[in-house]
Amino acid sequence: MNRGAAKAGGLVLLAALAVATSARSHTGGSTGYAAIAIDDATIRYTLTLWPATLPAAIRDDMQALRVGDPVIRDRVLLALVARIALVADGRPCRAGAPSLARAAGESVTLAAVFTCADTVHELRVRDDVFDVLGGDHHTLARVDAAGRTWQLAFAPDAREAKVRLGESSLGVWGFVRLGVEHIITGYDHLLFLVALLLPGGGFGALAKIVTAFTAAHSVTLSLAVLDVVVLPDRLVEAVIALSIAAVAAENLVRRATVGRRWIVSLCFGLVHGFGFSSALRELGLPAQGLVASLLGFNVGVELGQGLVVAVLLPLMIVLRQTGQEPRLVWGSSMAILLVGLVLFVERTFL
């Protein structure tokens, strides 16, 4: 065996396993949904979180918060609200006592009312909840004021955003970035894409695969966000896991026809599109902002997939020249199949 090729194959396999074992949720970490309602000089801020997706250090406290422990409730609520800063026209707004607005199903919603010095014309939002909820947390926010709506996306490297009430600001670039991160850090999407690409093929075939996936993803994401077609999240997550296992199994049992793999990508991409829809549905985006947000997110998804292909394609070319490609495809597909099956069992029965 060519040791160099074996090492290269091993690195790719280890990378796939590392992605699978280190990630925690469908979107690569946790996502919170904030609603910021501006009424004259008063701002009501709410944040919805899913405790099960949070890091262990905060997960237990959030679960205790749901059952009404007053000591933990006050500590957690104060810690989170203290990391939200609202500045109206250059002057900080003062936060009132936070409260638990809702604890329904698997989610919790905290609320706080901020009082500003005067009628708000320009609002600057600073979101530092990542210091509590982890570096792979994201916050999607909706700002409502004077009959207008703005959408914002916050991340550890993009913690501030500004809204001028006299202007329309959709924060499209924030959703582009979120789309890239959704692919790069979303382990189930990434494993599915890697399994599709493992059998190789020319640049044209690979471009068809990733484009078909994005096209399908876009269709069902749009339908779900517009409430045209909405499927239970548990069902969607289970089928996504099954799609990972199915594509990996095909790599093992027979030689995949690369030229037709875009059809597989298209079909399963329809299911993957529902996976992110809950995020935008939670935001309750209006139609005028929704179009721009969806476009930005899907452009980001395409860019993210392009980055994945740019990394994998040179490795595949090198391995094909060394004759070690069959071993790599078999070993990596077996690992991805096992991960897919474990995820399917977990999401279906646990």
> Hey, roughly how much beta strand do the residues contain?
15-25%
* Principal-axes shape call: elongated
Residue runs with pLDDT of under 50 for 5 or more positions? 1-28
Helix content: 55-70%
Quote the average pLDDT.
Answer: 78
* Helix/strand class: alpha+beta
**The number of domains:** 2
Rg, nearest Å: 22 Å
- What is the terminal separation in angstroms? 42 Å
Describe the largest sheet.
7 strands, mixed
Secondary structure tally, helices: 12
Task: List how many beta strands DSSP finds.
Answer: 11
Run of helices and strands = HEEHHEEEEEEHEEEHHHHHHHH
Descriptive report:
This protein has twelve helices and eleven strands. A hairpin with a 2-residue loop joins strand 3 (84-88) and strand 4. Residues 1-28 have low confidence and may be disordered. The chain has helices spanning 3-22, 56-66, 70-81, 130-133, 172-184, 187-197, 203-225, 233-253, 261-275, 277-283, 287-322, 325-349, and strands at residues 30-39, 42-49, 84-88, 91-92, 94-95, 99-102, 108-115, 122-127, 137-145, 148-154, 160-164. The strands form two sheets. Strands 1, 2, 5, 6, 7, 9 and 10 form a seven-stranded mixed sheet that branches. The chain has a four-stranded antiparallel sheet with strand order 4-3-8-11, with no helix packed on it. The chain folds into two domains: 3-23 and 186-349, no CATH class; 30-171, no CATH class. Helix content is 57%, strand content 19%. The protein has 350 residues and is α+β, with helices and mostly antiparallel strands. Helix 1 (3-22) packs antiparallel against helix 11 (287-322).
